[in-house]
Design the sequence.
């Protein structure tokens, strides 16, 4: 029997229907391709929509995501447009873009 991806959410309160759809894609990628399949799906999500990538990963690892954003900002490698979009999403009462 194939090993299924077990996900433990730290904070799922800000996830939209679109975010949940991406989480399901990640689960299916893992179920069909294991860790390599999951890695490819995560890379694809990151390339497609960095804000949604941050939101989805942040639901599982909020402290780690905050730390990475803080470090990226300190290094100046986080694009200001991406940061503005992320802040708009986080400030929205529904979490929608």
Sequence:
């Amino acid at each position: 029997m194939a090993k299924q991806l077990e996900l433990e959410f730290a904070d799922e309160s800000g996830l939209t229907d679109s975010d949940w759809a991406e989480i399901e894609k990640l689960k299916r990628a893992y179920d069909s391709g294991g860790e390599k399949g999951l890695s490819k799906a995560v890379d694809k999500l990151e390339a497609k929509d960095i804000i949604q990538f941050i939101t989805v990963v942040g639901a599982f690892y909020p402290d780690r995501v905050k730390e990475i954003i803080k470090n990226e900002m300190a290094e100046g490698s986080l694009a200001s447009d991406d940061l503005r979009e992320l802040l708009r999403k986080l400030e929205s009462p529904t979490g929608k873009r």
